[in-house]
Each structure stands twice: as structure tokens, then as C-alpha cells.
Amino acid sequence: LTAAAAISLVFAISATAAFAQTGVKGKVRNQRGDGVANATITARKDGKDIRSTTADRKGDFVLTGLPAGTYNIVFDAQGFQLSVLY
């Protein structure tokens, strides 16, 4: 994995008790700290993709409507190695 091909993540978890749904929001960044535009962010549970979203031009994203649970978050962007937050 080269420095130019690494994706890092700043994220936050939020929950809405009324709907028992959770969400993930954050920013996909490269090793220099620049936002990665158009990265695909996918919540995966038990090996199945549950919900996906795309980062904006600054690398910011919001992934909402996830049922409560534990997820792996998968990040994919052109020119970068696929990355998973377990």
C-alpha cells in the first residue's frame, strides 16, 4: 500500500431512538488529508451490503437509515485501494 493509494476516514456515529435507526457520517481523506470526492461508502453486515452512499466533492458523506447493529464500513474510490473499517 503506497502513501498515494491510502484512504483514511474521519467519522461519527449517530442514532435516532424514535426510529431505532443509526447512521454514519464523516469524511473520506487521502494520506495528505485532502477529501476524496465521489468515494463510495458501503455499510456491510454479515457479508451483505446493506446501504451505500457517495461522498461529495469534499469527501463528506452521510449514510443513514441503518438498522441498529454492528457494521463493517467499506470505502472505495477510483485510484485508491479498497479500504474496510472493521
Protein architecture, described:
It is a single chain. With 86 residues, the protein is mainly beta. 0% of the residues lie in helices and 57% in strands. It has strands at 7-16, 21-30, 40-45, 48-54, 60-67, 72-76, 83-85. A four-stranded antiparallel sheet has the order 4-3-6-7, with no helix packed on it. A three-stranded antiparallel sheet has the order 1-2-5, with no helix packed on it. A hairpin with a 2-residue loop joins strand 3 (40-45) and strand 4 (48-54). The protein is globular and about 35 Å long. The chain starts with 6 loop residues before the first strand and ends with a strand.
Q: What is the topological layout?
A:
Layout (H helix, E strand, L loop, with lengths): L6 E10 L4 E10 L9 E6 L2 E7 L5 E8 L4 E5 L6 E3 L1
Antiparallel strand pairs: 1-2, 2-5, 3-4, 3-6, 6-7
Helix content: under 10%
Task: Give the termini distance in whole angstroms.
Answer: 18 Å
Shape: globular
Strand order of the largest sheet: 4-3-6-7
Spans where pLDDT lies below 50 across 5 or more residues:
12-19
- Kindly report the average pLDDT value: 81
